[in-house]
Write a structure and sequence with these properties.
Layout lengths: L2 H6 L9 E2 L10 H17 L1 H8 L4 H11 L6 E3 L3 H11 L7 E5 L4 H8 L7 E5 L6 H6 L6 E7 L11 H10 L3 E5 L11 H4 L3 E5 L11 E5 L42 H16 L1 H21 L14 E5 L3 H10 L2 E2 L1 E3 L2 E5 L6 H16 L1
Parallel strand pairs: 1-10, 3-4, 3-5, 5-6, 6-7
Antiparallel strand pairs: 2-8, 7-8, 9-12, 11-12
Helix pairs in contact: 2-3, 2-10, 4-10, 5-6, 11-13
Bound molecules: pyridoxal-5'-phosphate.
């Protein structure tokens, strides 16, 4: 049996539902769930003992597993409660001034754009590009000027499924000395990410989508040498934090400097476990995700649907155009098929352990509902 077949047996939802909604929230696989439960149970039985055990290397063992997934160094990985927090850390950490430009776009999830709106109050120019799906990268890149300080975009778009060529974006950004901040919540765990090769500066992701981890888990990658002085300080931002001395603050140099206070250890232990499993099988996952989304596009077109997501620039998200997506999604739920309505279509987001049969069943049902 190949990895995706054995893994499927550890995802209990597959016994009851056709679940093609990983771009929203993923069902937690058993080994990932057990990692959280083990920790919570240990705390219930032994209080501070397991906490101190997990923390005694400053969560290095967890950072290492996340780092491996994206080819970063463990010292470049911090744990964050959600994607929005990480984006705010960068937005307020890179010291943007009046007249500086941030490039983002109107196809982004608001978690990417809203943090920058606050900066407009101090005169930062937030350029909200209106890109076309077919020319996304060209449209973003043509907005760059000598005043651009940051490009903030998603790796994979939540509402079109487009996967962006990060290498191309960061190369052009570097040519004017701008940073790149990439929201990887729709790509991490589904498609290969190599922060070194693509030369991006910041990447953030909550763990609860393609990384199949609990809500409250998440990571932020900050390239070594950047944001040495974070925008917020908390007791854990000090290298002296275990002295509990309110007068003695020494800025921490490691990735804990962004963590401010207590992190959700149980959720992030689960995330680290998921990253360990996924990174050991990333080749297979990457190609399965791509094959299944290609299959979805092909089969939906065969059945007469328009598909918004381009075949040559996608990861795991496919948007199929239908009339009245919300009604169709509710009807599908009655048939134990879970997908999401997004804009003018239905978002089908297949992870590597889904099957072609599940996709056929889903699209056939969408056809029947649409015809009735
Ligand atoms: C691209 C993108 N970014 C961020 C989020 C969610 O942000 P957060 O983790 O802060 O809740 C989503 C959720 O759908 C998303 O699609």
């Amino acid at each position: 049996m190949r990895f995706h077949e054995t893994f499927r047996q550890q995802v209990p939802i597959t016994n009851e539902y056709t679940y093609l909604n990983h771009a929203a929230i993923s069902p937690t696989p058993l080994p990932v769930l057990y990692e959280s439960l083990r920790y919570l149970l240990d705390i219930s039985r032994f209080g501070t003992i397991p906490v101190n055990q997990e923390e005694n290397d400053d969560f290095f063992h967890m950072r290492e597993k996340v780092a491996r997934l994206i080819n970063a160094s463990p010292n470049e990985i911090s744990f964050i409660p959600n994607t929005s927090f990480g984006i705010n850390v960068v937005a307020h950490g890179i010291d943007l001034k009046e007249g500086d430009e941030v490039i983002t776009d109107n196809l982004e999830f608001p978690a990417v754009t809203f943090p920058f709106f606050k900066l407009t109050k101090k005169g930062v120019n937030v350029k909200l590009v209106k890109p076309k799906i077919e020319s996304f990268e060209d449209d973003i890149l043509s907005a760059i000027t000598s005043k651009t300080r940051l490009i903030a975009i998603s790796h994979v778009s939540f509402n079109t499924g487009v996967k962006v060529d990060l290498k191309r974006i960061s190369k052009e950004a570097k040519s004017v000395g701008a940073y790149t901040l990439i929201d990887t919540i729709q790509s991490a765990g589904a498609t290969k990410i190599n922060v070194k090769d693509s030369d991006i500066d910041f990447a953030v992701a909550g763990g609860y989508k393609w990384l199949m981890s609990p809500q409250g888990s998440g990571f932020m990658y900050v390239k070594e040498g950047l944001l040495e002085d974070p925008p917020f300080y908390g007791w854990k931002s000090s290298s002296t934090y275990l002295e509990f001395n309110a007068e003695n603050f020494k800025l921490e140099k490691g990735p804990r400097r962004f963590e401010i206070g207590t992190i959700d250890v149980g959720a992030n232990l689960a995330l680290a476990k998921a990253c360990e499993i996924l990174s050991q099988n990333m080749e297979e996952i990457n190609s399965r995700v791509s094959e299944l989304s290609s299959f979805t596009i092909r089969y939906a077109k065969e059945k007469g649907f328009d598909v918004i997501t381009p075949e040559d620039k996608k990861a795991g998200i496919v948007i199929v155009k239908v009339k009245d997506p919300k009604t169709v999604v509710n009807e599908l739920l009655k048939r134990k098929i879970i997908v999401s309505p997004r804009g003018i279509g239905i978002r089908i987001s297949t992870h590597f352990y889904n099957t072609e049969e599940e996709i056929i069943g889903t699209i056939d049902e969408i056809k029947k509902i649409s015809n009735s």
